[in-house]
Specification:
There is one protein chain. The chain is elongated. It has a two-stranded antiparallel ribbon with strand order 1-2. Helix 2 (32-48) packs across helix 3 (56-94). The protein has helices at residues 7-29, 32-48, 56-94, 99-118, 121-132, 137-144, 148-166, and strands spanning 2-3, 52-53. Helices cover 79% and strands 2% of the residues. The chain is an all-alpha fold.
Amino acid sequence: MLNAKSDADFRFIYEKIMNVIYKVSYNITKKREVAEDICHDCLIKMTEKEMVFPSIDDAKYWLIRVVRNASLNYVKRVARERKAYQKVFKESINQTATSEETLLKDETLECVQKAFEKLPENLKSVLQLKGYSDLNYKEIGDILGITEGNVKIRVFRARKRLSKMIGEDDVYLP
């Protein structure tokens, strides 16, 4: 049995497996420092969870799986961030609104704001929480003291009323 909390067992696992898990991580991330960090984080996770392995092979398989998943998550996160930056940068360069578009957007915003103010308070509050606070339906229900189902119904009703008040012809969508 190998206990990750034991200094001797940890050292044994590290010496036998570090090279393998580093190669796995490096082949996925293609960055030396990142691969090292991921391997060390996974070794720390192993000790924090006080893992006990029947054999060195079991430790190796577990660490390879954890390192592989962490490396893939890193690559996905970097790709998402790169895509988001490119999108923002591209939009800021390519979006030069004409004065007519700006006027239509302003009129639409004013129309939506006026319609929103006419909603009853119970419908207005769920839309505000849903739209601006990044809360899920259950959290909104907890805040307002209503059920999750009631929140969903109120959001649906509020959106339906707004669309009736505004009318599709009066809204500018670029």
